[in-house]
Amino acid sequence: MPLLIVDECIACDACREECPMDAIEEGDPIYIIDPDRCTECVGTYDEPACIAVCPVDCIIPDKDNVETMQELLYKHKQLQEEEE
């Protein structure tokens, strides 16, 4: 499932720089993860890069956007093809 940034976000920009799918953007007042671009780093890393670098642990699974591993891999592949 895509990830979600909760209100504890301090807008430090660490997560946005690490996202290989450019799924994280500035919001007001906290950052936002685009569920259509978030693959939880499936196909790129072993774990979500944004979670690993977040200093306040404010990135959680988005229970409103549940996706299987196969769906995340397919999304990753589609996004990679769009960028080519």
Characterize the quaternary organization of these chains. single chain
- How would a crystallographer describe the biggest sheet? 2 strands, antiparallel
Spatial order of strands in the largest sheet: 1-4
Tell the overall outline.
globular
- Number of discrete helical segments: 3
What does this protein structure show overall?
- The model has no long low-confidence stretch (mean pLDDT 95).
- It contains 3 helices and 4 strands, in the order βαββαβα.
- The protein is of the alpha+beta class and 84 residues long.
- The longest helix has 15 residues, at 69-83.
- The chain has a two-stranded antiparallel ribbon with strand order 1-4. A two-stranded antiparallel ribbon has the order 2-3.
- The termini are far apart.
From the structure above, extract its key features.
two-stranded antiparallel sheet; alpha+beta; 84 residues
Q: Brief description of this entry?
A:
This protein has 84 residues and is of the alpha+beta class. The chain contains 3 helices and 4 strands. Strand 2 and strand 3 form a beta hairpin.
Describe the secondary-structure layout.
Elements: E1 3-5, H1 14-18, E2 24-25, E3 32-33, H2 49-53, E4 59-61, H3 69-83
Antiparallel strand pairs: 1-4, 2-3
